[in-house]
């Protein structure tokens, strides 16, 4: 299971476990910037998975320059590239390590493009010969965030890329100006 962060992982891992699936959590998030944010999210996921006895595999690549180069000409369309990169890495990892299925914690967020994630995941599944395990985790979003707060997990304030951080501050400024 691709994990974008520890807070989003909480309810997803529990739901899978409740369904008889013991996920291996996979960190592949070269989209997260700046490095201090990348490190905070990665370390929180390491601590959380260790605390619940979940296996964690890491593609520990901080990819600022490659990510920015890839999205520079279409910043507004960056999410497609970002989902393709992370979901593709997950499907490839699953295939290379003998897993039959993969999924992502991205499917818990009401702020992500759910349909686009599913479209990209189906393509990655076909490309790598593994199945995409679809779960609509969104109904568990608030519950998972509440549990993450209770556990004292690091809670990020934006999706991950530097442009989503900019969007966050731009929206905040607009609200304060109104």
Tally of alpha and pi helices: 7
For the record, the CATH architecture stands as 3-Layer(aba) Sandwich
Arithmetic mean of pLDDT: 93
Helix coverage percent: 55-70%
User: What is the CATH class name?
Assistant: Alpha Beta
Number of strands: 4
Q: What is the terminal separation in angstroms?
A: 41 Å
Domain count: the total is 1
Order of helices and strands: HEHEHHEHEHH
Strand order of the largest sheet: 1-2
Which geometry do the CA atoms define? globular
Q: Look up the CATH topology.
A: Rossmann fold
Radius of gyration: 16 Å
Strand content: 5-15%
Would you tell me the structural class of the helices and strands?
mainly alpha
Largest sheet: 2 strands, parallel
Description:
The chain has 178 residues and is mainly alpha-helical. It has one domain: 3-Layer(aba) Sandwich (Rossmann fold). Helices cover 56% and strands 7% of the residues. The strands form 2 sheets. Strands 1-2 form a two-stranded parallel sheet. The chain has a two-stranded parallel ribbon with strand order 3-4. Strand 3, helix 5 and strand 4 form a beta-alpha-beta unit. Helix 4 runs parallel beside helix 5. The termini are far apart.
